[in-house]
Amino acid sequence: MSILRFDNVSKRYASGRTALSDVSFEVRAGEMLFITGHSGAGKSTLLKLIHLSERPSSGVVLYADRNLAKVRGPRVALHRREVGVVFQDHRLLTDRTVADNVALPLVLRGERRGETGKRVRSVLDRVGLGDRANALPGQLSAGEQQRVGIARAIVAEPRLLVADEPTGNLDPTLSAEIMGLFESLPGRGTSVMIASHDLSLVKRMKKRVLVLDHGRLADDISPEDLAA
Ligand code: ADP
Ligand code: ADP
To answer: Is ATP-binding tagged as a keyword (predicted)?
Structure first.
């Protein structure tokens, strides 16, 4: 089953800058893949088209067979709740505890308090922060903060998780740790797409890699090809 499909997608910003040109690919349910390419290649733009921060200039984006062009108005918020997003700067609320930050997607969708508490504890355990629930983000290390960002993105059990340079601010050891965390997700039915310009890190993961070059899909490398 396909969770995401890009058909001949192009994106030209109002400035006249073409960020994506005629990009087509498909992501299967449960698949994990990387999007790589130089700065400015179009990685962020591609992810923005998935969580509807931007719209394509031409072409079609299908999410779970739903044409995202038809997702407008209040349905945009509903779509965003189905797609988990991890940012490089994690965008945590600094005046709320770790647990409150992670609970946010559940609170927004009106989940009951008991259920919310249970899920938050479980997901914090999974990312190894079970004992930091009541800390404020500022009291955590960079790697821990990113793990909170991931916990928040997965707490509502999204079918698709997109991450934009999630290890951009982390040293190699922490980066590998965070990637290991992402790697454990597809088994739970979540597809994962990670944008990263860190080619050596991407290669070590031995997953499918989409290579963007000046907005064009220059390569779509399978894990088998990567090994060869
Ligand atoms: P990457 O994530 O690979 O660094 P981006 O998707 O951020 O690439 O950017 C692709 C191209 O689009 C770049 O040339 C960038 O300057 C341009 N771009 C990105 N966002 C905007 C925007 N909001 N308005 C105009 N140009 C943009
Ligand atoms: P991020 O993806 O980190 O949230 P942005 O989306 O703001 O950052 O920017 C992504 C890239 O696009 C950056 O390289 C930025 O310089 C470029 N960019 C963003 N907005 C514009 C714009 N209005 N015009 C040109 N380039 C832009």
So the answer is: yes
Q: Domain-by-domain residue ranges, the chain?
A: 2-82+159-227, 94-157
Two structure tokens written together for 104: 């946010």
**pTM listed for this prediction:** 0.88
pLDDT, one tens digit per residue, over 159-169 is: 999 999 998 87
DSSP 25-50: EEEETT-EEEEE-STTSSHHHHHHHH
Q: Is 140 in contact with 170 (CB distance < 8 Å)?
A: no
- Element containing residue 24 per DSSP (H, E): strand 18-28
147: which DSSP letter?
A: H
- Give ligand 2 pocket residues (Cβ under 6 A): 15, 40, 44, 164
Q: Is the ipTM of this complex over 0.90?
A: no
- What 3-state DSSP class applies to 2? strand
CATH 3.40.30.10 correct for 2-82+159-227: no
What residues have CB less than 8 Å from 170, skipping those under 6 apart? 142, 143, 146, 178
Residue 111 DSSP class: -
Q: Nearest C-alpha to atom 18 of ligand 2 is from which residue?
A: 40
- The answer to whether the CB of 45 is under 6 A from ligand 1 is yes
